[in-house]
Amino acid sequence: MNKSAYLDYILDQTQKILSIDSPTGFTKNVAEYVMREYKSLGYSPKQTVKGGILCEIGEGAYSKDALCLEAHVDTLGGMISQITDSGRLILTPLGGLEPNNTETENCKIYTRTGKIYSGTMQMKNASVHVNNKYRSTAREFDTMEVVVDEKVNSKEDVHLLDIRVGDIVCFDPRTVLTESGYLKSRFLDDKVSVGILLGFAKYVKEENIKLPRKVYIYFTVFEEVGHGGSGSIPSDVTDIISVDLGCVGEGLTCTEYQVSICAKDSVGPYHYDIVTGLIEAAQNGNVDYAVDIYPHYASDVDSALTAGHEVRHGLIGPGVYATHGYERSHKDAILNTFLLLTEYLK
């Protein structure tokens, strides 16, 4: 296996997917792109009712013992909740978007008539030379606003642009791949793992891998609001592994160069046998990994269990710093996540 070739493909696909705006509830364009890529690899993906993607990539001997690998294409974003009398836009978050992480960020406003405008998220009265409370003002969605890059001075001016309450606001991902191998961007959660699962499907096809069981890849579109993986799980699935993110921070062992294996999150412990199997696969394949507990985390697999699916569950992902902000990982973590999948599914 040419590891570097698959890594290059994953990084290229991840950057392309990051360039497609897709906050939760606004994922049609990215789903269409991913569907096309799977078809180009020789697969037959199907779209779910909610707009997700389900694709079978391996037929094993155990027809009633299938594995589902999940990742999500939806990201954080905003929706217009109010248009002010001065022509500014007040947002409500889509998912866990933090207002202090959006200050001075460029964004796009997508109208329902198909028009797209640019703007910038600022705190109200944003000039330091004018506002003597600039430093002390808490950055909240009701103290911040989108300044539209058009000559608008009133609510009526904004309406003439076809901008309305309920329109989607998408933030610039600011994607950078450094020469030293760091991938920096908004929305690595979870588009980097979408790229990894594309790479895994490419590996299975090109290397003519005979998987030991049937494997589905499932891309969900509502993970950031908690119900992405709650439905459309095929009836023969007994195990689900969410391929999402590993957190990097104080009190944790994972780094930006490792694959994380999660033992427990805010919902509870992951299935003991799945976690143990992932650890053994990492050790057998000399994959650089870490095991951690994430008290402020929930995954698509949690929503599947909450919805009543009788499955065993696991969670892995590349180590990512500054999750839900301007995130950073390294190509080593991305490769280690890919290699863990190949080793686990030998």
From TrEMBL:
List the catalytic residues: E223
Spans traversing the lipid bilayer: none
Binding of Zn(2+) 2 occurs at D189, E224
Alphabetized InterPro entries for the sequence: Peptidase_M42 (IPR008007), Peptidase_M42_aminopept (IPR051464), Peptidase_M42_dom2 (IPR023367)
Report the cofactor remark: Binds 2 divalent metal cations per subunit.
Required co-factor?
a divalent metal cation
Please give the Gene Ontology molecular function terms for this protein: aminopeptidase activity; metal ion binding
Sites binding Zn(2+) 1 sit at H72, D189, D244
Gene Ontology biological-process annotations: proteolysis
Keyword Metal-binding belongs to the record: yes
Q: Which UniProt keywords apply?
A: Aminopeptidase, Hydrolase, Metal-binding, Protease
Looking at the keywords, is Metal-binding present? yes
Q: Which domain of life is it from?
A: Bacteria
Record-stated family: Belongs to the peptidase M42 family.
Name of the molecule in the record: Putative aminopeptidase FrvX
Q: Which organism is it from?
A: Lacrimispora xylanisolvens
